């Protein structure tokens, strides 16, 4: 039996309309609760934000959508169907990987197609190894999902299930890189099936093999693109929630919680409005929620270690490049060295690996006719590195453009019509601890039952949702976290 909030649960206030908050709101509405969502921005989405600039539309947060069934599941709680709210395009290829030696590899979800691609581009033996790797990550997903991811966990004792033994036997608690290398021998396939560890804030050399489940979620289950951009996802969730009675208060900042005898009794806004409630769900970054709304961080939160950060450059351009897919990963020659620089040395990458997404490739409406929108991401250390981003930011922007042009984006700088640079300092100013949009790192002692719980210690009716709590980082995980938060309030939701 997992712990639940105590007392009445008739009216729930959700602070923050991020994906986790929206997921929780839909489930609570479906369970018959009165739900009010308070959001400081003018639109839903949280980190999954939106920027419109001179006819270009940009997603400001995540650019990769996997596991759309989780969106469908949230909508189903209020009797809605995914197809009525989102137009999802399966991406083919999922990614296009470019390597320092000039070779490239298209990543496909279809196992047979991917085996053919690897056999043609690398070797038949590597294709066989890939097939065995797919079997491995598929088993990981099967053993992990219900017992360790999509489940509220109160104690390590909750993990004592038959699937724990299966995970141990499978090698899930060994290091990720050696486990991947057991199946894949070529550095190109090793990189493309282990870079996902970066989303978890750890290097493939240090990450647990269980995080290969992220590779299952995208490289096996598929990557999708919603027409209208990634921001179409929170718009859809918020639209369905509104249809079913959830009240949204946009452009409204929560500044305090009214509390009495260990319970939150009301939410107080910047304008002085008091919103009485029975339960509060907090979607802001967990350490920030503690600091700003609960009077200070507990020691367990203060000592968290955070993932590396990133710099993003959103570009509206008159340039197009025929060799690109929707998602493009440019790997540098260095691999282990990149992670050493980001995580151990906390320095900028000397040989960067780069993500370039071209959303206008699959939705031309995101840019003016004949033009393109680009989402460029360079991993960087978080703010604990002590880099002065006010002075470094403009110089690093120029370095990003030079690196892109050296990787085949000829004349990229000349083609820029509009741009938006976001540095770790900007992430911090948006409410992300240490300027880390990937939240606290998934080290062993910040994983699963050791990750901060979604129940606020010392309070009967305050629940957390989002990437800082269980189960963790990424669009699928935060959607699940919304469900887990809702289940703390109303019990299991079918």
Structure description:
The mean pLDDT is 94. The protein has helices spanning 19-30, 69-76, 111-121, 124-149, 162-170, 176-183, 187-192, 213-220, 232-243, 286-293, 299-302, 336-345, 389-406, 424-429, 475-490, and strands at 11-15, 34-38, 50-53, 56-59, 88-90, 95-98, 104-107, 224-226, 247-249, 254-260, 263-269, 274-276, 279-282, 309-317, 327-330, 354-357, 372-380, 416-422, 462-464. It has 15 helices and 19 strands. The protein starts with 10 loop residues before the first strand and ends with a helix. It folds into 3 domains: 11-90 and 227-304 and 442-490, 3-Layer(bba) Sandwich (FAD/NAD(P)-binding domain); 111-222, no CATH class; 308-437, no CATH class. It has 494 residues and is α/β, with parallel strands linked by helices. The strands form 5 sheets. The chain has a 7-stranded mixed beta sheet with strand order 7-6-15-16-17-14-18. The chain has a 5-stranded parallel beta sheet with strand order 9-2-1-13-19, covered by helices on one side. A 3-stranded antiparallel beta sheet has the order 10-11-12, with no helix packed on it.
